[in-house]
Design brief:
Helices cover 48% and strands 21% of the residues. By secondary structure, it is of the alpha/beta class. Strand 1, helix 1 and strand 2 form a beta-alpha-beta unit.
Length: 140
């Protein structure tokens, strides 16, 4: 049995990471689908004048909606899976969840939502590669 952890956001590379996990999946395997809500980073970088609690609730709602989309897809494919939504720094949370979930392979996109043409690998992906206690598969 192989346990996969797929870190998701609304990026195309996250969708490809999930698709890769599905392509590797064999009966008896398990896929953990994780979304991380980084409230502090978003609030600092957004320059938003929205009240923090209102922003927090909206981001949590968006995370739950994203998980529902992946849940529908995973069910339609007959996968054994679990959904996880946590708050914190994405890079730290992913590395922490690897141990908690007893992950064999973590999959994530090369870059997430803050993609720029000059970035070959995102800071979250770079951090996970350097600190994960399991194999890491980066999708382009």
């Amino acid at each position: 049995m192989t346990r996969y952890l797929v870190a998701i956001d609304r990026s195309e590379s996250a969708k490809r990471a999930f698709a890769r996990a599905v392509s590797l999946y064999k009966p008896g395997d398990h896929i953990d689908i994780l979304t991380v809500t980084d409230l502090v980073h978003f609030y600092i970088t957004s320059g938003s004048s929205v009240a923090f609690e209102e922003l927090k609730n909206k981001m949590k709602e968006n995370a739950q909606n994203l998980l529902k989309e992946y849940e529908t897809d995973a069910k339609s494919k007959g996968l054994d899976f679990s959904l996880h939504s946590i708050e914190g720094s994405a890079r730290d949370a992913i590395v922490e969840q690897i141990s908690i979930l007893k992950t064999d392979i973590v999959l994530l996109g090369q870059v997430g939502l803050t993609v720029t043409k000059s970035v070959s690998i995102g800071s979250t992906s770079d951090f996970v590669i350097r600190n994960a206690s399991c194999d890491v598969l980066i999708t382009k």
